Amino acid sequence: MKIKIVTIGVYGFDEVGFFEALCKTKVDTFCDIRSRRGVRGATYAFANSKRLQARLEELGIRYIYRKDLGPTKTVREKQAAADKATKTAKRKRTELGEAFIEAYNTECLAAFDPQSLLDELKPEAQVVALFCVETVPEACHRSLVADKLVNTFNWEVEDILP
Q1: What is the number of H-type helices and E-type strands within the chain?
Q2: In the chain, which end has fewer C-beta atoms inside a 10 angstrom radius, N or C?
Q3: For residue 51, what are the domain limits?
Q4: pTM of the full predicted structure?
């Protein structure tokens, strides 16, 4: 099974643009890898779990939630400390801190069996979206998950940007 991975964050998209981007890239499976499946504020309310799942269902896109791939509070605190030290606003971050990467690899990716995700996909799955919130893939753990999948299965990866 040859799968294409796309990564997408919600920040920077409006509701129409977000779902158009998923359809344009022919996403058939949407994998939510957030720790918490809500986004504050009206601008991104469409990305809150229930509304998101309802819209994906309307579009014929299967929804999967993989909480095991969401960074733990301890891991998120490492990035918060790095952002504070560099005086970088969360939504302006362009890369992950080394402490976050190390902690995420140790606490989340070390226990992640990529085959478990493959087993969860339907046989007809062709384009799987890894979803979190950050705009820039390199500023989000979804890039680390995508790298692991590429290294394991040699899948193609495309980042969808607003």
Answers
A1: 6, 5
A2: N
A3: 4-160
A4: 0.93
